[in-house]
Amino acid sequence: MHTGEKPFKCDICYLRFSASGSLKKHMRIHTGEKPFKCNMCDQGFSQSGNLISHMRIHTGEKPFKCDICDEQFGESGRLKRHIRIHTGEKPFKCDICDERLSHSASLRRHMRIHTGEKPFTCDICDERFSESGSLKTHMRIHTGEKPFKCDVCHERLSHSASLRRHMRIHTGEKPFTCDICDKQFSQSGSLKMHMRVHTGEKPFKCEVCDKLFCGSGSLKTHIRIHTGEKPYKCEICDVRFTNSSNLKKHSWIHAVEKPFKC
């Protein structure tokens, strides 16, 4: 330990160790030997310490506690990584852009920005992703799973970000403000589209008549002039319309209420 001598060498990868026991444990990486088995789920481990940590999944034991926020963990390594939230320590640095990260796993994910690597593939449509979480979220398109529920109106959504945006309907929160006219919006996309009023930008073009539009929705509605599609139908007289606003105006014919007064 004091001299740094490592007389025990692995014949496969040439890694060296100071104790024969350490070499013996290391060799299990190459042989795949897992002599330590969980009595509950039969999962095997190459080291007894890994089995001890694993058993805490079944027992719920969390002996490692953060002194700052009292959060508890089943492994000392997880506590060590957690502590970096409080200390701001970021020991892992990207060699390309010098960005610093607090976890080795975060660095591995970050490197995919530079390499373009997308190791996670959807089995249904073959779309590829750089992170497993992105693939998991994508799969909800195919499964129709909507695990996030609004506590106010009980609408279900497939993404946590969608739920956050949806909640603004109930709270009235509009965190995105136009720098020119101070108009506020609940979504960043709505602000982006609004800015085209000031810039005059119209990036969406009709392929039939070349008319330009500032939003994809406006273009989609316009296309119905050429296709003749009228997806909005009056439930009373079956008259059909190209957009919802025309249907809404039409519905006043049948309504007893007449909201516009001279």
Automatic annotation (TrEMBL):
It comes from the Eukaryota. GO terms for cellular component: nucleus. InterPro entries: Znf_C2H2_sf, Znf_C2H2_type. GO terms for molecular function: DNA binding; zinc ion binding. Transmembrane segments: none annotated. It holds the Pfam family zf-C2H2. It is found in: Nucleus. Belongs to the krueppel C2H2-type zinc-finger protein family. This is C2H2-type domain-containing protein. It comes from Sinanodonta woodiana.
